[in-house]
Amino acid sequence: MSAAIERTDVLVIGSGFGGAIAAYHLAAGGAKVTVLERGPWLESKDFEHDYKLGSSYTRIFDFVVGDGMSVLGGNCVGGGSVVYFAAMPRAPRFVFDRRGSIGRRMWPGSISRDTLDPWYDRVEESLSVSRQGWSDASYAGGLWAAACHRAGRTANPLAAAIDNAKCVNCNFMMAGCRFEAKQSLTANYLPAAVAHGAEIRPLHEVQYLTRTAEGGYRVHYTIVHDEDYRLQNGSGVIEAKIVVMAAGAGATPVILQRSEAHLGRMPHAVGRYFSGNGERLNTAVLNEDKVAELLGLSRGEGLPPYGANAIGKGPTVASWDRLDGSLPEYSRYSLEQLYFPPGLGTILAQAPDATGPTWFGREKKEILRNWKSWLTIFSMTEDDNEGVFGPPPATGNAHRISQQMLGRGNLTYRPTENTWRGWRQSDADVKEILEKDGLAKVMPWTNDLVGAYTVHPLASCRMGDDPHTSALDDRNELRGHPGIFVTDGSAVPCALTVNPAMTIAAIAERAIPGIVASARLRGVAVTYGAPAPNGRTGGRKGVLPLLRREQPARA
């Protein structure tokens, strides 16, 4: 006998930026909110400082290998915010006028840098985002800045959601912050949502949606085993008047594709136009003698002047010389220093000047001995939204291969010449900066093993004005399916040339008034107007003029 169907006002799928922000505001406004998260719920004390299989590292990540593109994302309560490096730049102004492969503006006409800035302000207030100073830069960031300066380029400290007073430079940010220095959503929006009555259920993986006779939705889920994610511990159904999809750009379209048999035809753009944020990685092997001679850097006490790749935060310094709106599309990008942990980065790094294989073999073994002298540069370029999701797997977002972390997905990605142009140009820039006068040897990561790769998947259910090339309207509502909203990275129309967390969060904040209005039409007693999770109200003032201007016309 099946269990009774549960009921809630708002069902949120996923607990990353898109899900946590929606859960907080709707719960604070008086709605009954339930959040289903497929990953575990870890506290700060649970984050382990190692990369062993079965540790927190493999429990909170989801690595899905597709055909030509692999995606690394969060798999835990807090989603990508638990594993991100907390870099929070705003998207450049030109991004919102991008035309891409469709030959016309991709973003909705109602969204520009100017109209999004008040929502950026709200996120900045809620997550205590601040511009870092040079004293906050890591060893790797400082070296990258010095190399850029010597090559005639500029570099800037990044805005970040980090409390530097708590940061101990352990460099395990990507495996979760046990010192609570990083502003993960588990430190703000999610506890605030719970305080207002929201219920968060970890290890609940949504499979598909069906429709109720009253116009609401039934969300069908399975319960994931807490150690072996390939196993299930039961299933259930929750009925909701509003559904907020925030499972991530690699999972939201898959759930919607699987739901098509029950809900009816999905918009053409569901599972199409995927963007990897144009991401590309290069590894430089630094010549320590040249670091001292050319950059004048020294640590004293007989230590190598750099030799510290494993010390410090993630990205702290970026070069934005190519973020110039007057440049042609596909030639604009940022170059950001970061530290990628052992494992994937070690495997995919190539050996410069190798006479044989570049990503394995004798020369590769030699550069592995010099891992403390590695510097990784992260390029975020403009790609062509060429990713397409095939038929969904029977369950989940991918066929799970291992007990945790690894899966095989249905995403196909064939980089166009436009995308390759940006990659080649950014590769050449990194090489020019770091190989000047023999400072380092540089090679991009190989695409031979897992295709292209991204840690910032976007645009697989993107918003826009054209119903053929966008799955969502400008209020984040799924076309043809009223009451379903998408607020995660899949709603972002295109690559941003910078880290996307700030923009994903701002778009989610912007979507809330429309979700509240839709919920009220469906009989949910909910209001809009909660302060930031930390109680601050300054950001509310900035969006009030927008609400007065936009909301009446959409009622």
Automatic annotation (TrEMBL):
Residues 453-508 form the Glucose-methanol-choline oxidoreductase C-terminal domain. Residues 69-272 form the Glucose-methanol-choline oxidoreductase N-terminal domain. Its cofactor is FAD. It holds the Pfam family GMC_oxred_C. GO terms for biological process: cholesterol metabolic process. Keywords: Cholesterol metabolism, FAD, Flavoprotein, Isomerase, Lipid metabolism, Oxidoreductase, Steroid metabolism, Sterol metabolism. Belongs to the GMC oxidoreductase family. This is Cholesterol oxidase. It comes from Streptomyces taklimakanensis.
